[in-house]
Amino acid sequence: MPAGENWGQRVAWQRAALAFLSAIPIGWVGALIGLGGAEFRLPVLVGVLGFPSRRAVPLNLAVSFLTLGMAFFVRGRVLPWAQLIPLWPMLGALLLGSLSMAFWGAGWLPRVRQRHLERAILILLAALGLLLITEAFLPLTRPGGGLPSGVIRYGIAFLAGLGIGLVSSLLGVAGGELIIPTLVILFGVEVKLAGSASVLIGLPTVAIGLARHLRRGLISPQEGLQVILPMGLGTFLGAGLAGPVLGHIAPVALKVLLGLILLFSAWRVFHPHQVQTATSGEV
Length: 283
Fold this sequence. Notes:
By secondary structure, the protein is mainly α. It has 10 helices and no strands. The chain is globular. 47% of the residues are buried. Mean pLDDT is 76; it is low at 272-283.
């Protein structure tokens, strides 16, 4: 076997191993809280595995879809999905907005300056993280979230879904980092129930954006074998480890953990872009 080919295979195996190992803790956190874990994977794909950020977005979506699929199974065994039935009208409005914008947002990815979008997301995630941590100790919500019922409530849910779908399609995230605080702070949903609702909303939202990226040929078979498959396997392992823990964590602890994740994610989303623009000259 030629030395160059042998070296290429060794690099491919190293990339696959890194993808697998990094996905285990990400999958654990994702299944535990109801996130796709993409806020952690994006820095890994860009900073560790060396993908440009625009290439990392569809890869991130693909693994997010696998993560949410496993989270759907894990959470359904611990928290029955029937508990979400009373929330379906509001969740339906949120999902409709999310799906609508996810479809259009995926087509805008090549035309959006990543730097501007990431700075907006940095501010948004940091604000939501601080709000959620504060709410854990000084409750800001009351039953129903304090919003009026009826058309206004559903309209707010639809508008929130539009923002969630846009962020999902453009950054390759499942949107849980926005869905859960929206449900908890605006609509007064209990945090564990909000995590399950996040999985249900995130799955079709991610599927819409991923389908559009796949039609544009942004994921190659090689990337599927070297990145998506090992990350998916690592995600399944990590998510499976979350099941025995999920039913024993206090809601306050989950809120604080999610808030810290949002703050960390806000910082990480900004810095991978700084590395990219330093080499690409994008402004």
